[in-house]
Amino acid sequence: MTDVAADDTNEQREVRLGKRARLLDRGEEAYPVAVPVTDTIPAVRERYADLATDTATGDVVGLAGRVVHLRNTGKLCFAALQSGDGSRIQAMVSLDQVGEESLVDWKAVVDLGDQLFVRGEVITSRRGELSVLVHEWRIAAKALLPLPNLHSELSEETRVRNRYLDLIARPAARTMVRTRATAVASLRATFAERGYIELETPMLQTQHGGASARPFVTHSNAFDTELFLRIAPELFLKRAVVGGLERVFEINRNFRNEGADSTHSPEFAMLESYETYSDYNGIADLVQDLVQRSAVAVGGSTTVTWTDGTEFDLGGEWDRISMYPSLSAAAGVEITPETPLEELVALADRLEIEVAHPIRGKYVEELWEHFVKPGLVKPTFVMDFPVDTSPLVRDHRSIPGVVEKFDLYVRGFELATGYSELTDPIVQRQRFVEQAVLAAGGDPDAMRVDEEFLRALEFGMPPTGGLGMGIDRLLMALTGEGIRETILFPLVK
């Protein structure tokens, strides 16, 4: 905002404060505890959708909404009231209906942005606009700051930092909120049909784990101990599986102290689920069903329409490719789990690909992202990852050096990941120890040895398939938007 704009805002605020004082001096409230609403704007619009032009119904309603348009003339004033979903109705304030004193007050105290209550008869104007012919009105909440220009595009910075203004001004922002709610409701319904139980697990943990990521660290005064905001709910959900809860899921917040870009946010919503006696193939079937049902719930079809008008097909059976063969084909050289680290380093160096912590699996994944990932637009499951980058995943049943893990790519970004879970506590301990060595060597994403989790595994965890999917990224796939648009209040600097 420029200095001139800031000065103008300050002047308007002072004027509006004077109007607030005028209300209070008359014994009226600028922020009443309640107003006698009897109907909603969308309900009235639906009920009288076919009302003929210049018609008086005789029906009296009490409505409230935000003033988004205001036109004051001599004996007749007009305001457009907007409800939370963006529906609007016209309020007509005339001298013969409210009297001279009330009309003068209207002109003196009502501003754009005010929350306003009106009671009156439902009519249509001579232009056919559905209206309320006001008999009574009052301020429901006095706006002290002016609205942005509703006819101009808000900047991305304004939208993200002031989402409340975005919701007032932009239909797409309101639509995103409802789209997200619909998609999440669809996920829960699908899990319910499949006999899953929704759980809640700790967000404050004494030990971070369940993913390779850098945690946020805090301190508990009550326990005088270091705590971590969770990077994943995995290790607690698996404890529940050990306890006999055979199909479980959780939708909640995760926190990773890492970069922020068009597909990453430090705080994000995550779905994780576990199903006993399933594996990564069964979990791939599950995630395809979850996403496709969400698409149908949101838009009525597995072909979704993004906000820019692009149609994107999420239907049918999704392709499944294997990491090593797809990398070999794209790179023009055979790369296997046995390829020496030196060869991988040499290839990465030629391509100027930097790998922060040089283990073989990370080189394979970085090379795969260079050669293969850019070409993945339609939904594709990438199967069979290096063992040394997936410490919580079961070894592949027939291919040495890889694990039974998939990543689902949609629009070129990772949407979900699935596993045949590692349930052998002895092997799991070995994997944790290997991670601890990497952590000691400076890898901030490496896990620690989690003795409590290992103890739980020693009581016996059945064969299990697991799924992790970002809710924000699901909305990216359904709407074509970046991650900051799919999160209602994203973290910004």
UniProtKB/TrEMBL annotation:
NCBIfam families: lysS_bact, PRK00484.1. The lineage of its organism: Bacteria, Bacillati, Actinomycetota, Actinomycetes, Micrococcales. The keyword Iron-sulfur does not apply. Residues 185-490 form the Aminoacyl-transfer RNA synthetases class-II family profile domain. One of its GO terms (biological process) is lysyl-tRNA aminoacylation. This is Lysine--tRNA ligase. Mg(2+) 1 binds at D407, E414. GO terms for molecular function: ATP binding; lysine-tRNA ligase activity; magnesium ion binding; tRNA binding. Keywords: Aminoacyl-tRNA synthetase, ATP-binding, Cytoplasm, Ligase, Magnesium, Metal-binding, Nucleotide-binding, Protein biosynthesis. Homodimer. Its EC number is 6.1.1.6. It catalyses: tRNA(Lys) + L-lysine + ATP = L-lysyl-tRNA(Lys) + AMP + diphosphate. Pfam families: tRNA-synt_2 (PF00152), tRNA_anti-codon (PF01336). It is an enzyme of class 6 (ligase). Mg(2+) 2 binds at E414. GO terms for cellular component: cytosol. Its main location: cytoplasm. Belongs to the class-II aminoacyl-tRNA synthetase family. The keyword Heme does not apply. Binds 3 Mg(2+) ions per subunit. It is found in: Cytoplasm. Its cofactor is Mg(2+). InterPro entries: Aa-tRNA-synt_II (IPR004364), aa-tRNA-synth_II (IPR006195), aa-tRNA-synth_II/BPL/LPL (IPR045864), Lys-tRNA-ligase_II (IPR002313), Lys-tRNA-ligase_II_N (IPR044136), Lys-tRNA-synth_II_C (IPR018149), NA-bd_OB-fold (IPR012340), NA-bd_OB_tRNA (IPR004365).
